[in-house]
Amino acid sequence: MDKFTVLESVAAPLRIINIDTDMIIPKQYLKTIKRTGLGTGLFSEMRYREDGSENPDFVLNQPAYRNAKILVAGDNFGCGSSREHAPWALLDFGIRCVISTSFADIFYNNCFQNGILPIQVSPEDLDKLFDDADRGANATLTIDLENQEIRGPDGGSVKFDIDPFRKHCMLNGLDGIGLTMEKAASIDTYEKKLSERAWA
Questions:
Q1: Which GO terms describe its biological process (predicted)?
Q2: Helix axes 105-113, 85-93, angle to 10 degrees
Q3: What confidence tier does 82 reach under pLDDT thresholds 50, 70, 90?
């Protein structure tokens, strides 16, 4: 998993509440267990018209936001089913951070396991961040995980809370496997002792 330290990017505003995982990645894309290639299906029912052409009104199809790595979204982001394909699709598209006032628990946990930083802010702070995001290519946000701070284009900042363990994992690029590998020496020592005991 890639480390998350400081991220600077245009932020795409998605002023929709209750964005569920089926909206993030519709069910027809769930046939794969690969984490790559799902970016094309991200928000596909909003991104594409029935004939398969792009919907120019959808935010991620607009020139200013095509390369956005930050998503500023409405309340209760990631609700619905627990599909891990949702963070996979976001990450494959290039989104590394989602900012909202609230997240569904399972989606929130899945984000951390896949290198996406979900940041919870107050409604007042979300309104400020929406204002910044609405300025498109003329404004970028900086996400500083070490200092737990979102810096706006005009020098303003928003502080956010994060569990210290999750912060450690994100800063060091550690998912469940990475955490286990940190204990490799201890595991090897234990396995050796167990083997010696079996032959004693």
A1: L-leucine biosynthetic process
A2: 50
A3: confident
